[in-house]
Hints:
The radius of gyration is 28 Å and the shape is flat. It starts with a helix and ends in a 9-residue tail after the last helix. The protein contains eleven helices and no strands. Helix content is 81%, strand content 0%. This is Type II secretion system F family protein.
Amino acid sequence: xxxxxxxxxxxxxxxxILTVRHSSVYIKEKRQLLEHVSExxxxxxxxxxxxxxxxxxxxxxxxTKYADEFADLGQRINFFSENQDVAVLxxxxxxxxQLTVARFQGMKIFLLIVGFFAGAxxxxxxxxxxxxxIIIFPIIGYFIPIITVRNQAKKxxxxxxxxxPDFLDTISTxxxxxxxxxxxxxxxxxxFDGPLREEFSRFNYEVDLGVPRETAYRNLLxxxxxxxxxxxxxxxxxxxxxxxxxxxxxKIQAEALRQIREEQIKELAAxxxxxxxxxxxxxxxxxxxxxxxGLMLLNLIYGENSIFTLF
Length: 311
């Protein structure tokens, strides 16, 4: 009877995982189809993504409203998540779920409690290794928000770096054509998606509200720690103070970024060579030797010139 219960639980969780997988595939294909239709219909695909993201944000906020109850406790239990560090990470990640520092800290404790009850439930059911789940699940729940925000910040900064050279070339061309910087930014960012569009849209909005240009530049530096992006903004600040032509600054920065990207690719290729050699030496070569030795041994035993025919 116990074996039947365990088998039923395993089958239940297997079906849940299968359902989640197929649901994610369906959502991904649906998103791709919507993007394709929006391209054909000549509509702004970015607006559709924005609306879809807002629905996700509303759903997430409904799910995480219980985290506010644990906000005070989370701010006191702040291992690997100091309030200042969390605030910086939320800025760098784009904070697409509109989390405050207090809600983030509460979410951490809320998931810890959920993980504890999940581990206790698995222990009562008698799942394999359930005695460790009571400790492991709460730890996983505690670190899920921290790891998620860190990964989002890293991906966002990487996406920002990849789009910079093309963006700078386009801006430089517009400036050489006689367009002002503000107008060039407003026109060019319409053709870019992701964090680059978000950051410069916010920059334009701040400038339109009367924020000094240098202060808006400083805000860009505070929200992003990508070295290439920070180098561009610092160059713009220096160019504004010293009177250097902005079009020249954009062109030089674009060429420098492409050169840096080329050097990074060469560095990654150089690092990959020892790894390939290591795999070849300790995996491919021994397996090949074992296969050849096995074939020779089988030939000696069962082949036409078998050792048994000598007797």
